[in-house]
Structure formats: C-alpha cells, structure tokens
User: Which sequence fits this backbone?
C-alpha cells in the first residue's frame, strides 16, 4: 500500500506560533511598531489601552498603514491609509465606505462596511511582553494577502526577530 506523501512546499506551511515584538513599555512610548512575524510584515498599534495588529500594506494598493492616522468613523476606530485615505477598522480589518441614497440627496451619508479586507492578527500580552500570532491564511482569503506575499513582501533582517519557541512556559 502506498503511503500518502506530503507535497506541500515547506515555504507555504503556516507557522502560527506567537512571536515576541516588544514590551508594553515600548508600545506605550511609541504607540505603534512594525515587525516581521514568520516572514509577514505587520504593524502593531497601541491605541486607547488596546493592541491591534494587521498586515502592514493596505489592501487597496499596498499603502504603508504604519504611516496612517487613527480616526473614529461612526464610533469605529480606523487606520486611514496615507495613500488614498481608505478607512480600515483596527479591531476587525473591515474596509469602511460612505453610502448615500441618490433618491434622497438630503439624507446624511452613512458609514457602511465592505467586509473584512485587511488581515488582522492576534496580540497577546504576557508579563509585560507583547506577542503577535498570525491569523490562519488557510482559513479565509483576504485582499491584503496579495501585498503580504510574493514580490511585495519586504523582509527585514532575521536578527530583528525575537522568536519565542515555547510561549506557554513564559
Ligand atoms: S493604498 Fe491604501 S488607500 Fe490606496
């Protein structure tokens, strides 16, 4: 009987172990940081006491989200891409847009969601240390994946990574 063989390219196997990206103190000082987590560039925001991590390049055309402003739209906190001003919610990665009713021009435009467009990742705080765990790209496709892989991917030197192999024992 033939045993099944693994044909998956090792480069495509997902690694979802948490990666250390800095201390709480670091984030309280600078409010945002960039990191490479298992070959994926992410930005981590510290905003109003909460941490949010997402792919660093905007789902629209790859704009640098770490250079954007944080603003609230209809009560939802967003990063505004510096290139074309797309609004992306920090907590869910949804793209927001304003809709108007052409039959009622006097109506106030409403903020609506395009759905999840930017991949967000999980941030964990443990003993004053901040870790990022990538969301599983195999679970669902996200528009920002295009700019997080292939020719658009920018990899920093491996020495900037501080990988924690056994997160549970920290
Ligand atoms: S690249 Fe971000 S809005 Fe266009």
Assistant:
């Amino acid at each position: 009987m033939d045993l099944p063989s693994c044909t998956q390219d090792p480069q495509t196997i997902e690694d979802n172990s948490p990666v250390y990206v800095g201390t709480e103190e670091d984030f309280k000082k600078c409010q945002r940081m960039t990191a490479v987590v298992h070959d994926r560039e992410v930005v981590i925001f510290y905003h109003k006491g909460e941490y949010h991590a997402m792919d660093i390049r905007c789902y629209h055309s790859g704009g640098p989200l770490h250079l954007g402003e944080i603003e609230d739209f209809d009560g939802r906190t967003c990063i505004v891409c510096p290139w074309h001003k797309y609004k992306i919610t920090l907590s869910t990665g949804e793209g927001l847009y304003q809709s108007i009713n052409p039959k009622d021009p006097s109506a106030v435009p409403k903020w609506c969601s395009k759905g999840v467009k930017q991949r967000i990742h999980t941030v964990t705080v443990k003993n004053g240390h901040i870790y990022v765990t990538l969301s599983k790209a195999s679970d669902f496709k996200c528009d920002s994946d295009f700019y997080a892989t292939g020719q658009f991917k920018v990899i920093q030197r491996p020495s900037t990574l501080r990988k924690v192999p056994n997160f549970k024992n920290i």
